[in-house]
Amino acid sequence: GRGAWRLGLARTMGWKDSMKGLKRFAAAPWFPIIVGALSGFNLFALVLSGPLVVLFCSAVLANPKRWFFTSLANAVGTVAGCCLMVLLIEQRGTDFVKDAFPSTFKSKWWSWTEETMQAYGSVAAVPVAAMPIILHPLIFFGKLSNMGNTMLLGSILVGRIAKYVIMSQVALSMPSALRFFGASQDTIEEITKDKAT
Fold first, then answer.
1. pLDDT tens-digit readout, 97-156
2. Within 13 A of 10's CA, how many CA atoms are on the CB side?
3. 178: which of 9, 54, 92, 171 lies 20 to 30 Å off by Cα?
4. Is residue 178 a contact partner of residue 191, using CB atoms and an 8 Å limit?
5. Phi/psi zone of residue 61: left (φ > 0), alpha (ψ -120 to 50 degrees), beta?
6. 48 Cβ contact partners less than 8 Å away, ≥ 6 residues apart
């Protein structure tokens, strides 16, 4: 009941606090790889999006010269999570996504992705993957339409590299525009504060 919900909330908040504590390592050479791995993990956790934006932008701001490496590491980490998701779908069927992640099925992006994929087919996979949205619907409809794994995961990689390259440049030049990537005002303020220090 309510006690379990509070415990779950406390664990989630603990995760988020731990992730924000990671920021102090933002300049470390391994930091973008950790953030990328967490991005892949978030495909299953779904609660770390805000803290991940902060960590990604912190990595970019801590060492602006490695903005492309940071973008690439985040995209590769995300695709690693997608690869695991694809394997689970192949073992358990496409309904696995709906059963395991019911909130993604109710998302407005679910129907948008479905309509886009129906209208444009696999050509739409790269632009959809570049959008600041969850990837579950793209993976679901890609597998449902028998899109090959290499094509699907390659499209997600290209799309996510584009997304993170743009995000890194926005973080460096105009953090307030991160709202277009779904960043909350609190997240933007935290990044702006990091940029100023």
1. 888 888 887 888 888 998 999 899 889 999 999 998 889 999 999 998 889 999 999 999
2. 6
3. 9
4. yes
5. alpha
6. 15, 16, 19, 38, 41, 42
Which helix (H) or strand (E) covers residue 129, if one does? helix 125-130
Q: Give how far Cα 50 sits from Cα of 47, 81, 117, Å.
A: 8, 18, 27
Question: 166: which 2 tokens?
Answer: 């743009």
Q: How confident is the model at residue 25 (pLDDT cuts 50, 70, 90)?
A: confident
| Spatial CA neighbour of 131 closest among 113, 117, 154 | 113
Alpha-carbon span 111 to 4, nearest angstrom: 32
Separation between Cα atoms, residue 41 and residue 86, nearest integer Å? 14
Please tell me the total number of residues recorded for the chain in this structure: 197
Name 44's Cβ contacts closer than 8 Å, sequence gap at least 6: 81, 84, 85
Amino acid (1-letter code) at residue 43 = L
Give me the residue label for tokens 């912190």: 58
**Farthest-apart Cα atoms in the chain, separation:** 49
Q: In the structure encoding, which two tokens stand for residue 104, read together?
A: 């993604």
Q: Give the whole-angstrom CA distance, residue 134 versus residue 17.
A: 22
